[in-house]
Amino acid sequence: MKLDLAAYDRDGFLVLKDFLLAADCDALQARAAELIAAFDPGPARTVFSTRDQGHARDRYFRESGDTIRFFFEEEATDQPVPLALNKIGHALHDLDPVFDRVSRSPKIAGLADALGFARPLLLQSMYLFKQPHIGGEVGWHQDATYLNTRPSTVTGFWIALDDADRDNGCLMALPGGHRGPLRQRFHLAGGALMTDTLDATPWPNLPLRGFA
After folding, report:
1. What residues contact residue 41 under an 8 Å CB cut-off, 6+ apart?
2. What is the count of structural domains for the chain?
3. Which of 43, 76, 74 is nearest to 60 (CA)?
4. Are 203 and 140 in contact (CB under 8 A)?
5. Residue 151's domain is classified under what CATH number?
């Protein structure tokens, strides 16, 4: 696989058009629909919010790293489940055969190798929804805030299963933003998850890139 590694080093990301086969995207969507159909939320619905991090106080979220769990959008807990979910996480790649097959496919492994990963570790997977007309704002953030290593090596592979643009929820990035300091760290302390501010440097005023 031939990549523009100079652009990756400069910008901190690469956009790879049609990276997965349409059949793989369809399979992941179909499997997610099956998981949702089998899910019974019961009376308690954990809301995932990047604004107040209230989910961090919820044991259902804190213990989701090695299982498959469902998280709801803000102000959508009275909606039908398929229209109210924010995401499914966080061990789909380990526990579900369809997500495992795609996550550990030769194509993904080849991409990791081409980027120079010596010993890549699949740590977390999420199936993100962009529900129409609802949903809390997701502000600028760094993945290393939540998946912290020394030195920082966390790298996200974001795959649009539907056509994505600025109007329906594409991923946004700050070119070169990876060169700045780690601003926050989300971690466990005293039995509770909390966010510490490490550097209050404002986000750079750079042109935005939308991944369509």
Report:
1. 70, 72, 81
2. 1
3. 43
4. yes
5. 2.60.120.620
Query: What tokens were used for 180?
Result: 């700045």
Tell me if 183 sits within 8 A of 201, measured CB to CB. yes
Rounded to whole angstroms, what are the CA distances from 68 to 38, 39, 57? 12, 10, 18
The overall pTM is greater than 0.90: no
Average pLDDT over residues 24-35: 98
Domain that holds residue 135: 20-140+147-173
CA distance linking residue 67 with residue 93, whole number of Å = 10
C-alpha to C-alpha distance for 138 and 115, rounded to whole angstroms: 27
Hey, what's the torsion of the CAs at 153, 147, 176, 206, to 10 degrees? 180
> Would you say residue 76 lies in a domain?
yes
